[in-house]
Amino acid sequence: MNAFSPSRRSLLGGAAVAVVGSALPGPTGGARAAERPAYRWRTVTIGGTGFVTGVLFHPAVPGLAYARTDIGGAYRWDDRAARWTPLTDHLGWDDWNLLGVEALAVDPAHPDRLYLALGTYAQPWAGNGAVLRSEDRGATWSRTDLTVKLGANEDGRGTGERLLVDPRDSDTLWLGTRHDGLLRSTDRGATWSPVGSFPAAPSATGQGVTLLVAAGRAVYAGWGDSDGTAPALYRTTDGTAWEAVPGQPAGTSAKVPVRAAYDRHSRELYVTYADAPGPNGQSDGSVHKLAVGTGTWTDVTPVRPDGASDTFGYGGVAVDARRPGTAVVSTNNRWAAVDTLYRTTDGGRTWTSLKDTAVLDVSETPYLTWGEERPKFGWWIQTVAVDPYDSRHVLYGTGATLYGTRDLRHWAPRIRGLEESSVRHLISPPTGRAHLLSGLGDVGVMYHDRLTASPSRGMATNPVFGTVTGLALAAARPSYVVRTGWGDHGNGALSRDGGRTWQPFAAQPALAKEAPGPVAVSADAGVLLWTFVHWDGTKYPAHRSADDGATWSEVPTFPRGATPVADPVDPALFHAYDTDTGTLYASTDGGRTFTARATGLPSGDGQFELVATPGRSGDLWLSTKDNGLHHSTDGGATFTRVAGCRAAYALGFGRPAPGAAHPALYLVGALTGPPTGVHRSDDGGRTWVRINDDAHQWGWTGETVTGDPRVYGRVYLATNGRGIQYGEPV
Fold first, then answer.
1. Whether 267 contacts 275, CB under 8 Å
2. What is the 3-state secondary structure (H, E, C) of 510-533?
3. Which residues of the chain carry a pLDDT beneath 70?
């Protein structure tokens, strides 16, 4: 393998609030150029909602910490403001795969230096990874593109940091990969080369290096592809020769080294193990410590899985820098007894479960009750951190948040500024208290009574959904809202108060449990259309209900797998776009039958979205990834391609500009050239202005976008890992 060629890029790290000046030139579309308006971008507050896979306190700077996530980038803790600052929002559409952070590293000797190893997927269809390096704590970056893939959202994403500054030389960095062995840089991450002396052979399908940790002047590397008999932990004491650590534990409970932490006072290395990398699939595990001076191993496992009803692995581990022999470890994938943290103050001879005395306060993020009376301590706990300047300040990450304590008893989310939602649906109602309803991956539907605080009602209940597949309101009766998704107690629900409270459909088609798909509701709320698509892509017939979901009938003429679109004016009119054939279908009898109208439109496996203009009957827009934006004013009989738009991924509508006749259009796409961005048109698509900027791109943003029908210029943008962004003119 050749050394990797670096590319230099210096970009501003993301901020909670940013103003884009009107003096900046922007791309244009249509017949004439338009000056870019000044916009301020902020994040709608929910609070976490995603897997926090790593937290790292800087060992030499009080109050400085960093966090990484599996799909939502990296963050720096602002101790004065008590919130997280996003550091990777500058990554754009083409770099969407870099929003997953495989590992992070700090330099103990140089507090301003920060390194990130980025790459969400290691699959053939994903791009290669990259290393970002900063000399100012993530305010600006230099970038090195790798020729290997990383997997921040794959199995093993909660294992230890795979990136490490060598304890002997700040210019030397180590990077563990999943399928390409161990890499080393001797120029602070600018170039990388493979380490030929590393004894473990890379695998095309395995976990590879799971952790890198310094213990004194030695570097230890965990290996995730052991069968339980082969070595799973290696070390180098001189930066050149590597060896398997003698006497290391073996067996099923010690197959995968998950994380490690070094107690410099006692010179002991604590290692957590499991029989699988996690976060799912673990059923056995253990904790061991190595006295690095003598080479003696000691089994210090707090509680053994019983192999029957109480199965789990071990995940996070952290040592107290101020108190020798004090460490904290976490269980992981412990569903029956619920995961916990164990703490020892005597080197692992005895342990105390912190969950048993924990008082959880989730009032700042009410969704964490998951529709139950009390929140759980957490799940997918694979990262734990102890503040090196405060022994009772402990953080641990879960699949949805980051909890913290200052007294080892009272715990609350420490998540302000960190938003990791994968957003699927957005609605901005024209009336009511909430300006926004959202449908999310994993955490259901949210009623945003405020944009700057987590929804006070938490996630929608009755029933609770995981990932949402459909969210729609009746245009003429906006208090009537329906939602569909993956749930254990029903897959469809309706609200008559704008999304504040819900009730499940009285009945649902049998397909709903295994293949819930998008839903639409007629303008007068009289008809529901529900389509069904299995997670493997299999498409099924749509179903129709005219009694609020009490009974359903199949609609054989509806194109399978299409998303139904209700006309915002005519209750009898529905549309659907068949991406397989490039055909627009319409129903004029309330969704009973559908017939083809326009044909020969773009088709295939690309991204498509059909939307209807509010307040106008038969006014349709078709967004296509490879063929731009198309517009119909005759109910889909004909379409005209919009000039000056090269690629369109999502389109939404907002309050018209003062004096304008057409609703404001908000487009995620590319105009005559790069970049892909967020654009606004106030004249029905004749001209466009870009309203985001290079520092605020958030990776992949093509799921959905909508303007606010009550506030001109305000736009809500769905991201895949950075929650809901909203922008407003300054």
1. no
2. HHHHCCEEEEEECCCCCCEEEEEE
3. 1-34
Q: What is the pLDDT of residue 204?
A: 83
pLDDT score recorded for residue 205: 84
Q: Where are the domains of the chain?
A: 47-413, 423-729
Give the torsion through C-alpha atoms of 357, 358, 359, 361, to 10 deg: 180
Residue 474, H or E segment: strand 468-474
**Residues pairing with 474 in the sheet:** 477
Superfamily designation of domain 423-729 = YVTN repeat-like/Quinoprotein amine dehydrogenase (2.130.10.10)
Report the C-alpha gap between 88 and 119 in whole angstroms: 12
Say how far apart CA 664 and CA 215 lie, in whole Å: 59
pLDDT tens digit sequence for 129-140: 999 999 999 999
Q: What is the DSSP letter of 137?
A: T
Q: Are the C-beta atoms of 272 and 262 separated by less than 8 Å?
A: no
Q: Is the pTM of this model over 0.90?
A: yes
User: What whole-number distance in Å separates Cα of residue 574 and Cα of residue 619?
Assistant: 12
Return d(Cα 614, Cα 380) in angstroms, integer.
43
CB 330 within 8 A of CB 312: no
- Pair 666, 653: CB distance under 8 Å: yes
| CATH code for the part of the protein at 47-413 | 2.130.10.10
How is the beta sheet containing 565-566 ordered, strand by strand? 565-566, 574-578, 583-587, 595-596
Rounded to whole angstroms, the Cα distance separating 651 from 287 reads 52
Residue 290 identity (one-letter amino acid) = L
Structure confidence at residue 535 (pLDDT): 87
Q: How many CA atoms lie within 13 A of 138 on its CB side?
A: 28
- Closest C-alpha among 241, 244, 242 to residue 232: 244
* Tens-place pLDDT, residues 183-218: 999 999 999 999 999 999 888 888 999 999 999 999
Give pLDDT, residue 34: 58
End-to-end CA distance of the chain: 50
Phi-psi region of 99 (alpha: psi -120 to 50; beta: other; left: phi over 0): alpha
One fold for 47-413 and 423-729: yes
How far CA 730 is from CA of 16, 21, 28, 691, 713, in Å, comes to: 15, 9, 20, 11, 10
The structure tokens listed for 704 are 């959905």
The residues annotated as belonging to the active site are 70, 442
Amino acid letter at 686? R
620, 612 Cβ separation under 8 angstroms: yes
Backbone angles phi, psi at 586, to 5 degrees: -140, 150
Return the structure tokens found at 123: 């699959």
| Whether the Cβ atoms of residue 274 and residue 258 lie closer than 8 Å to each other | yes
The 8-class DSSP code of residue 488 comes to B
Q: How far is CA 86 from the centre of its chain?
A: 13
CA distance 238 to 91: 37
Please state, in angstroms and rounded to a whole number, the distance separating the CA atoms of residues 14 and 83: 13
Helix (H) / strand (E) containing 40: strand 39-43
